[in-house]
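Question (not urgent): is this output format expected?
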Amino acid sequence: MTPDLMEQGARRIEARMAALAAQSQQTESGGRSAGIGRVVKDREVDITHGRILYLDGVTVSFDGFKAINNLSLDIAPGELRCIIGPNGAGKTTMMDIITGKTRPDSGTVFFGSTIDLLRYTEPEIAQLGIGRKFQKPTVFEQLTVFENLELALKTNKGVKASVFFKLDSAQGDRLAEVLHTIHLADCAFSLAGVLSHGQKQWLEIGMLLMQDPKLLLLDEPVAGMTDHETERTAELFLSLKGKHSLMVVEHDMSFINTISDIVTVLCDGSVLAQGTLAEVQADERVIEVYLGR
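Got this back:
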């Protein structure tokens, strides 16, 4: 390509970028980049407008049954949001949609103001900074706690890179920090298989933390835990609040009372009520469909 042609091409690119920039100022929000329907900036999590997750008008049906029905909610950066509701309310399906496991029939799902999650696959969404923990812990039981966390590091996973991998000082410091955060520093060189149920849950959370997620989705994290483990898990979640955004699906009201600021109640695939735990517990609709009298 000649210099003249290169210069002409550069001018065309500059003009196109200027047009796109002008277009981005003519959004339905009067020029703000936040919210639904904005210009998407690939893999850039924009939280300047105070929200890290948006779901707007999301609906998904399975064989004619609306598992999610016109669902809209949003979560702030650093917020710890608890999600409650009866079985079949759509809690797990909502998480499936956020993480790319299920595609909605309609609606929009944004990570920050600019990342349209419906454009990405499940592995890509994890790489964007959304970590998910299922109810049953999944760890490598024949490896030590330390080795489980080491495997979860954000590194090149190619064969050659893995064979010659060696922790650097920053990675070692990060691993030590996570061990302390998840209450497993004393068990670092124990096999994961000998840990208690609660400790395995903490280890899996630690493995997610090694990926440095911006948003954590946690499905019934204290199910099956002892009272002591539940208390330590509450301490863990409160220590993560502010550093990460957390969405916690749980049925244990005592646990929710310890950790929650805002509670969202789902029923029939949409938001039934939202507020403090005391507020939603006093809501007659919530009492009727979930809490009972």
